[in-house]
């Protein structure tokens, strides 16, 4: 009796699938064109000039229903009933896939973008929400004389095989020193090869061993079932004369992703070319921390003209009915059956991927990757299995080795190993746990060949860290700032051009290689000029002489530097001839004696005149009149002439004594200005006089 249930349910769902492939290998920065599988942004700023995949394949199987040891599984005496351990729940799942990557290649488009063209063939089976306890109840070892109950409820199974031709474009979006961002997009044309699915809704089966009484009064078992079964497929696989043809099925899909890199030591990888532009070394990984985020497998394959069978199994059949079931036509006679033609959409296993990669030191890395399905269980829907994987790895250009430690949603913890050696890559995400654990619930393996063309270490003949093709002096070491050339000394002044502010003119070190100039044009060079912007004499160190009191007499010539004076008086204020001085002069002048009737000075007048000279010298800028006077004895004409001659005689004595003639004027007044009466001898004596007065 149990054969019919197994035929309807279990045989259709023993395999289901997930989309994880190449576990461990995809963490490698040298995975090349394979990087587009996890994140299309990976191929931008890669270590490859080009990467050509020849062939690669990955296979995976996992479940949470049954566990078995590897040695027992491969032994010739393996018995499922005795050697397998069952983990029965009301929600068991199965998973498995095959992913073949055919001829594919990637290449760079300029310095900041890359493209890839790739081909893949994929087969995925997904099954979810099967009641393992009910399935176990259907085991043939159970005596058919016993009652049993199967409460399967809802379950889903779908299988899809298709090919992809993908075009990926990746571009550097930001390159801001320590912060680097790139993005990528893959567009995929999908060609379907075959699709089938089974969906159960509210399925229950109740077997009653004594449910029916036969004509001979004996009893027979009955099977009462409820619910609906849906069986859709792209071709009539049940037809014995079915001849496979590629179905009319196609579709489009896309992947997209971004990658951020933190590059704290970015300066080590920057090269400045002779054109002044900077570039970044392509042959090295430059990040300390990398974060990747991507969405993959968005889309569906549309199969035109598919077949969909709907079985309503609300019925009760007998043991005899069950024993007579040979094929699907017999099932159609027992249950309500409707078949229709319709287009079938096989939805791709859309997933979200988060990747964190830490460069521990040099060639050693630690990678954390998560795969999260974005598809819920449903009709003809493929789902990835949620995954968290921690992968330490050693990575170099020609060899990498990795040990992924992964936690799978269905099969639990698995430990694997993988390597890449030149063109060969192979590994397994579960090989260590497969051979070291007493039982396994899943396993995977991958292998492939490729032709990698890496960026080489740029040739640097002079060892200055600048590749020859970017080095202005490839055979002489020099700094990046000078395009790889050593700094020269063009003007031969011992100051190198990078520090010489006047590289074409010789100059001393203390003036940054520039010759000293005479900014203010005072013949004293600026290095010796204490006032470089104001002209001044050499004897005052190039500074103009100061004039503290502003009297136009420089302090060096000014006898009174803090008092306004005159040039003639050496910068000192002119003395003022007071009335007392004037009286003193005239008092002296009145004592000047002449020979009677003549202009000849008597010898006894000399001391008086010397004193007058001393007084006049005290007022060097004052001008005076020397005035001669007579009495009224004699003619007016004679007196006038005599007064003039006597005034002139005094003036000449004063000039000879050092008084400037420009300061003196001789005037004769004759008898015209008496100061006393001429009637008496005493008065006439007073009128015979010489006066020295301040010129007005």
From TrEMBL:
List the Pfam families hit by this protein, alphabetically: DUF5723 (PF18990), OmpA (PF00691)
The transmembrane segments are none
UniProt entry keywords in alphabetical sequence? Cell outer membrane, Membrane, Signal
Q: Where in the cell is it found?
A: Cell outer membrane
Q: Where is the signal peptide?
A: 1-19
Enumerate the InterPro entries for this protein.
Bact_OuterMem_StrucFunc (IPR050330), DUF5723 (IPR043781), OMP_bac (IPR006664), OmpA-like (IPR006665), OmpA-like_sf (IPR036737), TSP_type-3_rpt (IPR028974)
Query: What are the residue boundaries of the OmpA-like domain, all occurrences included?
Result: 581-696
Per its UniProt record, what SUPFAM superfamilies does this chain match? OmpA-like, TSP type-3 repeat
* Predominant place of localization: membrane
Tell me yes or no: is Zinc-finger among this UniProt entry's keywords: no
What protein name applies here? Answer: DUF5723 family protein
Provenance organism:
Maribacter confluentis
């Amino acid at each position: 009796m149990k054969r019919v249930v197994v035929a309807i349910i279990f045989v259709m769902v023993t395999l289901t699938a997930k989309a994880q492939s190449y576990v461990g290998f995809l963490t490698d920065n040298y995975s090349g064109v394979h990087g587009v599988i996890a994140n299309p942004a990976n191929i931008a700023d890669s270590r490859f000039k080009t990467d050509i995949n020849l062939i690669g394949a990955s296979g995976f199987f996992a479940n949470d229903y049954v566990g078995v040891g590897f040695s027992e599984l491969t032994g010739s005496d393996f018995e499922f009933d005795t050697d397998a351990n069952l983990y029965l729940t009301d929600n068991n799942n199965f998973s498995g896939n095959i992913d073949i990557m055919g001829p594919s290649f990637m290449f760079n488009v300029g310095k900041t973008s890359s493209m890839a063209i790739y081909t893949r063939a994929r087969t995925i089976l997904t099954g979810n929400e099967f009641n393992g306890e009910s399935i176990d109840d259907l085991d043939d070892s159970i005596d058919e004389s016993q009652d049993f109950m199967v409460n399967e409820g809802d379950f889903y199974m779908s299988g899809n095989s298709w090919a992809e031709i993908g075009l990926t474009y990746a571009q550097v979006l930001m390159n801001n020193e320590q912060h680097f961002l790139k993005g990528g997009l893959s567009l995929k044309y999908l060609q379907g090869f075959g699709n089938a699915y089974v969906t159960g809704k509210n399925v229950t089966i109740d077997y009653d061993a004594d449910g029916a009484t036969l004509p001979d009064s004996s009893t027979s078992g009955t099977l009462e079932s409820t619910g609906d079964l849906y069986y859709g497929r792209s071709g009539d696989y049940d037809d014995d004369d079915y001849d496979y043809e590629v179905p009319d099925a196609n579709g489009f899909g896309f992947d997209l992703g971004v990658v951020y890199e933190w590059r704290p030591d970015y300066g080590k990888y920057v090269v400045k070319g002779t054109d002044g532009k900077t570039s970044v070394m392509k042959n090295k990984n430059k990040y300390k921390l990398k974060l990747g985020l991507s969405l993959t497998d968005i889309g569906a394959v549309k199969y035109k003209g598919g077949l969909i069978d709907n079985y309503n199994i609300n019925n009760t059949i007998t043991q005899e009915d069950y024993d007579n079931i040979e094929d699907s036509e017999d099932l159609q006679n027992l249950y309500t059956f409707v078949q229709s033609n319709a287009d079938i959409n096989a939805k791709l296993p859309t997933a979200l991927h988060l990747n964190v990669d830490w460069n521990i030191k040099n060639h050693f890395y630690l990678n954390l990757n998560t795969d999260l399905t974005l598809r819920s269980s449903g009709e003809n829907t493929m789902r990835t299995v949620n995954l968290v994987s921690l992968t330490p790895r050693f990575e170099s250009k020609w060899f990498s080795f990795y040990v992924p430690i992964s936690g799978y949603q269905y099969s639990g913890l698995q430990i694997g190993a993988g390597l890449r050696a030149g063109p060969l890559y192979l590994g397994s995400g579960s090989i260590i746990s497969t051979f070291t654990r007493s039982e396994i619930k899943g396993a995977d393996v991958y292998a492939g060949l490729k032709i990698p063309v890496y960026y080489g270490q740029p040739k640097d003949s002079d060892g200055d860290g600048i590749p020859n093709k970017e080095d202005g002096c490839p055979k002489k070491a020099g700094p990046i700032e000078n395009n790889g050339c050593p700094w020269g000394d063009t003007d031969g002044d011992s100051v190198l051009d990078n520090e010489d502010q006047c590289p074409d003119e010789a100059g001393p070190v203390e003036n940054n290689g520039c010759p000293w100039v005479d900014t203010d044009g005072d013949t004293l060079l600026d290095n010796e000029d204490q006032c470089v912007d104001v002209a001044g004499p050499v004897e005052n160190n190039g500074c103009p002489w100061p004039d503290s009191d502003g009297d136009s007499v420089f302090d060096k010539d000014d006898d009174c530097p803090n008092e306004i004076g005159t040039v003639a008086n050496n910068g000192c204020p002119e003395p003022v001839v007071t009335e007392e001085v004037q009286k003193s002069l005239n008092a002296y002048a009145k004592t000047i004696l002449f020979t009677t009737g003549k202009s000849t000075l008597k010898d006894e007048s000399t001391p008086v005149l010397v004193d007058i000279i001393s007084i006049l010298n005290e007022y060097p800028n004052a001008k005076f009149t020397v005035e001669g006077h007579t009495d009224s004895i004699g003619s007016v004409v004679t007196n006038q002439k005599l007064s003039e001659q006597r005034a002139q005689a005094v003036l000449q004595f004063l000039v000879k004594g050092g008084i400037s003639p420009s300061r003196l004027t001789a005037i004769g007044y004759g008898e015209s200005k008496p100061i006393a009466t001429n009637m008496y001898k005493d008065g006439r004596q007073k009128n015979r006089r010489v006066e020295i007065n301040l010129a007005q």
